[in-house]
Design brief:
Blueprint (H helix, E strand, L loop, with lengths): L3 H18 L8 E13 L2 E11 L11 E10 L7 E4 L6 E2 L1 E3 L4 E7 L6 E8 L2 E9 L8 H11 L1 H6 L1 E2 L2 E2 L1 E9 L3 E9 L3 E8 L5 E8 L1
Parallel strand pairs: 1-12
Antiparallel strand pairs: 1-2, 1-9, 2-3, 3-7, 4-5, 4-8, 6-7, 8-9, 10-11, 12-13, 13-14, 14-15
């Protein structure tokens, strides 16, 4: 005969087992993921393309919104021009905006770019020049997801404290960075405006630096 106490005990055991087996996938909370960088640099000119999946509008408020593909093109040129246009088969081109404070030309659009290299043309001052940008991340470079995993393992207590009933109460930024080698910036943003930031080696996954700051 099965007693009421036995039924209750079984229900508690089942509930406990279910709770333990539930795991949080922190990649579901990435509101900005810069996964690719393409570069050209020569003769005093440099061109970069950043490819991301990013929240729109982007708000560092600890809550992940709807994300979509974003391609950003930056061009630093050796001379001054009144107008610069970019075009190419693998990108969505158009007239670039000059950001005087930053000192570069800029264009962005919703979409994606892919492949090991991207060819584009810059038209300025009555002439057009062709460029080939090379993808900086190689086969040995970690993915954004792998970089995030390195951080969750490094600071497991932070993620545990920010996770309630399997739900992560925050948003995450993962940005590929290139400075002679590949790195990742991983920012963990809570709903209180606090950000825990980590610099991750793009090959080994080692945490190089970390700091905490507010928005």
């Amino acid at each position: 005969m099965i007693t009421a106490a036995a039924v209750i005990a079984a229900a508690i055991a089942a509930g406990t087992a279910g709770g333990c087996s539930r795991q949080t996938d922190y990649t579901d909370y990435i509101s900005e993921m810069r996964y690719a960088i393409y570069m050209y640099e020569d003769d005093g000119e440099s061109i970069k393309i950043y490819c991301s999946q990013k929240e729109t509008p982007f708000l560092a408020d600890g809550i992940k919104g709807q994300t979509g593909g974003l391609v950003e093109i930056y061009a630093t040129l050796a001379q001054s021009y009144d107008k610069v246009e970019v075009s190419g088969e693998d990108i969505s081109g158009g007239e670039m905006s000059y950001l005087s404070v930053k000192g570069y030309w800029y264009l962005s659009y919703g979409g994606e770019a892919e492949g090991d290299e991207i060819a584009l043309t810059l038209s300025r001052g009555g002439e057009s020049n062709d460029y080939t940008l090379i993808k900086v991340a190689g086969e040995n470079t970690l993915t954004c997801e792998q970089a995030l995993k390195c951080v969750t393992e490094h600071d497991a207590a932070l993620f545990e404290n920010m996770t309630v009933n399997g739900v992560f109460e925050g948003e995450i930024f993962v940005r590929l960075i290139y400075d002679e080698s590949c790195y990742y910036y991983v920012g963990v943003c809570g709903r209180d405006g606090n950000i825990h930031a980590y610099l991750v080696d793009g090959t080994s996954g080692r945490i190089i630096a970390e700091r905490e700051h507010r928005i």
